[in-house]
C-alpha cells in the first residue's frame, strides 16, 4: 500500500471531492496526507484528515504589509529594492517542495490549478496526477470549451462555431496576459511576494525558471484551462463520462465519477442555521400533507446575485404549498433579503448534503459540486448559470442529459422561475434521467475506478521518495 499526498489549494468544491478521494483511498489500505495553505488546513482536519500547513506565503505577506509604502521620493528606491528582494526570496522559497519531499509520497495528487505544486514537484521523481472537478479541459473534435453554452455539433456550421470558440479562448488568453502585464495591478505584482496559490503568469514563469522547468515546452496554452495546462501529467476528473458531451477523451484523462463524501462534516453551518433546518424538518414531519422541498444555492466563491435571490424567493410567495431552503454560502447577510414568506428559510450556511437528502428540486448556479451532489440524491435541477468559468458548460450538460431545467438568470422573473421549478418537479423524463444518472454515479463508486486511477501509477512496491 502507498502513501498518497494531496497538494491542494483547498477551495471548497475541489476540497470536498478530494476529501472523498482520500476516504476511498484509505478504505483501500493507502495512507493519505494533505498539504495546503495554512488557512485551508482547519476545514481539512475537521473531516478527520491529516494535513500539513504551508506557512511561508503568510510570512512573506506579513513582511510586505509591515514595510509601508514610501512617503517621500527619496524613500522610493530603497522601498522598491526591499520589495524586489522580498519577491525574490518568495520565489526561492522551498517550503512546498521540502514539505512534500519530507512526507516521502508514492504518488502526489495535485489540484489542476496549483501551479506552484506542479513546478515544485518536478524534480522529485515521484508520480504525479492532476485532479479536477472540471469536465474535459482539452481541445477535442466536436467538444466546445467548457466555458461556453454551445451544444454538440450536428452541422458544419455547428462545428465551425466550436472551432471559433476555441480560437476565441486562445486569443482571449493571450490578450488577457498582455493586458494584465501592462496594467497597474500587473506592474504592482512585480513588487509583491509570490503566493503559493498564485495564478499570475509572471509569477508562474519565475517559479518555473527557479525549478528548472521549461514552461513553454511543458505547457499548452491552446487548451481551455488558463493561464497554463500541463498536458503531460495524467489527469483525473471527478466526473462521470456519461454526463459529458460526446467526444473521444485523451488517453491521459480518466473519469472516475463524482466523489461525494456522505459523512462530510458541514463545519461552516453554525448552531443557529442548524436549529432553523432541524425546526423545518420537524414541522414537515408533523404535517399531514407532503410538501415539495426546494433547495437553492448560488455558491460560495463569488458574491450571490441578490436580484436573482429575490426573484427565487418571489416564486414562493404564491406557492405556499412549497418550502424553500436558501443556502447563502456566507456571501449574503440573510437580513438583506428580509422580509421573506413563511415557507422560505434562509441559512447563511446550509448543511447541503442533509438538505439534498430531503429535497425534491435543487436550484443551482451551475457549480459542478452542487450538480453532482443533487444528482447523487436523485434531485432534479434548475440551473441559473452565472457564466463563471465552466458553469455554462455544466448547464449545457444538465440540459443535454435531461437532468433538469436551464433558466435565464438575467431575464426570468419569479413566475418563470416558478414554472421552471414546477417542470423539474413534474416532468417524468427529468425524473427518470436523474434516477438513471444517480445509478451511474453509484456504479462508478462501486467499481473502484478512483482507486484504480491512482494505483496504476504506484511503483510495483511503493517505498516513497527515498527509493524513487
Any key phrases for this structure?
single chain; 44% helix; six-stranded parallel beta sheet; globular; 18 helices; alpha/beta; 468 residues
Task: Report on the architecture of this protein.
With 468 residues, the chain is an alpha/beta fold. It has helices at 12-27, 38-45, 56-66, 76-92, 95-102, 115-120, 156-182, 184-189, 201-210, 215-218, 271-286, 306-315, 352-358, 368-376, 391-400, 414-426, 428-447, 449-455; strands spanning 3-7, 31-37, 51-54, 107-111, 128-132, 235-237, 253-255, 293-297, 323-327, 344-347, 361-364, 381-383, 404-406. The protein has a 7-stranded parallel β-sheet, with helices on both faces.
Ordered list of secondary-structure elements with their pairings:
Blueprint: E1 3-7, H1 12-27, E2 31-37, H2 38-45, E3 51-54, H3 56-66, H4 76-92, H5 95-102, E4 107-111, H6 115-120, E5 128-132, H7 156-182, H8 184-189, H9 201-210, H10 215-218, E6 235-237, E7 253-255, H11 271-286, E8 293-297, H12 306-315, E9 323-327, E10 344-347, H13 352-358, E11 361-364, H14 368-376, E12 381-383, H15 391-400, E13 404-406, H16 414-426, H17 428-447, H18 449-455
Parallel strand pairs: 1-2, 1-4, 2-3, 4-5, 5-6, 6-7, 8-9, 8-11, 9-10, 11-12, 12-13
Helix pairs in contact: 3-4, 12-16
Amino acid at each position: 500500500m502507498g502513501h498518497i499526498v494531496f497538494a491542494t489549494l483547498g477551495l471548497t468544491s475541489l476540497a470536498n471531492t478530494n476529501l472523498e478521494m482520500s476516504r476511498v483511498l484509505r478504505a483501500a489500505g493507502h495512507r493519505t496526507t494533505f498539504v495546503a495553505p495554512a488557512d485551508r488546513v482547519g476545514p481539512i482536519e475537521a473531516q478527520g484528515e491529516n494535513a500539513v500547513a504551508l506557512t511561508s506565503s503568510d510570512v512573506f505577506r506579513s513582511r510586505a504589509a509591515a514595510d509601508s509604502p514610501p512617503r517621500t521620493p527619496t524613500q522610493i528606491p530603497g522601498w522598491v529594492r526591499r520589495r524586489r528582494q522580498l519577491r525574490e526570496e518568495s520565489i526561492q522559497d522551498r517550503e512546498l517542495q521540502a514539505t512534500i519531499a519530507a512526507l516521502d509520497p508514492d504518488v502526489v495528487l495535485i489540484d489542476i490549478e496549483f501551479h506552484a505544486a506542479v513546478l515544485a514537484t518536478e524534480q522529485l521523481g515521484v508520480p504525479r496526477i492532476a485532479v479536477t472537478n472540471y469536465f474535459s479541459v482539452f481541445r477535442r473534435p466536436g467538444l466546445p470549451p467548457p466555458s461556453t453554452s454551445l451544444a454538440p455539433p450536428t452541422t458544419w456550421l455547428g462545428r465551425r462555431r466550436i472551432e471559433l470558440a476555441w480560437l476565441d479562448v486562445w486569443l482571449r488568453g493571450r490578450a488577457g496576459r498582455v493586458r494584465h502585464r501592462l496594467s497597474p495591478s500587473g506592474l504592482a505584482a512585480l513588487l509583491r511576494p509570490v503566493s503559493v496559490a498564485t495564478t499570475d503568469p509572471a509569477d508562474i514563469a519565475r517559479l518555473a525558471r527557479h525549478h528548472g522547468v521549461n514552461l513553454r515546452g511543458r505547457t499548452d496554452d491552446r487548451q481551455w484551462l488558463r493561464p497554463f495546462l500541463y498536458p503531460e501529467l495524467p489527469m483525473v476528473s471527478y466526473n462521470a463520462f456519461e454526463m459529458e458531451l460526446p467526444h473521444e477523451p485523451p488517453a491521459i484523462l480518466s473519469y472516475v465519477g463524482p466523489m461525494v463524501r456522505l459523512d462530510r462534516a458541514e463545519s461552516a453551518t453554525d448552531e443557529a442555521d442548524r436549529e432553523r433546518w432541524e425546526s423545518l424538518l420537524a414541522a414537515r414531519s408533523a404535517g399531514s400533507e407532503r410538501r415539495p422541498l426546494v433547495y437553492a444555492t448560488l455558491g460560495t466563491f463569488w458574491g450571490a446575485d441578490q436580484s436573482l435571490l429575490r426573484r427565487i424567493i418571489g416564486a414562493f410567495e404564491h406557492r405556499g404549498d412549497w418550502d424553500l431552503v436558501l443556502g447563502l454560502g456566507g456571501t449574503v447577510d440573510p437580513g438583506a433579503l428580509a422580509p421573506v414568506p413563511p415557507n422560505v428559510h434562509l441559512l447563511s450556511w446550509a448543511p447541503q448534503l442533509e438538505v439534498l437528502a430531503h429535497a425534491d428540486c435543487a436550484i443551482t448556479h451551475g457549480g459542478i459540486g452542487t450538480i453532482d451532489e443533487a444528482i447523487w440524491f436523485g434531485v432534479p435541477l434548475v440551473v441559473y448559470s452565472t457564466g463563471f468559468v465552466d458553469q455554462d458548460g455544466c448547464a449545457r450538460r444538465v440540459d443535454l442529459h435531461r437532468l433538469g431545467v436551464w433558466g435565464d438568470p438575467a431575464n426570468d422573473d419569479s413566475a418563470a422561475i416558478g414554472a421552471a421549478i414546477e417542470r423539474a418537479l413534474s416532468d417524468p423524463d427529468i425524473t427518470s434521467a436523474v434516477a438513471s444518472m444517480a445509478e451511474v454515479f453509484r456504479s462508478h463508486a462501486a467499481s473502484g475506478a478512483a482507486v484504480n486511477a491512482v494505483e496504476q501509477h504506484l511503483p510495483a512496491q511503493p517505498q516513497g521518495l527515498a527509493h524513487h
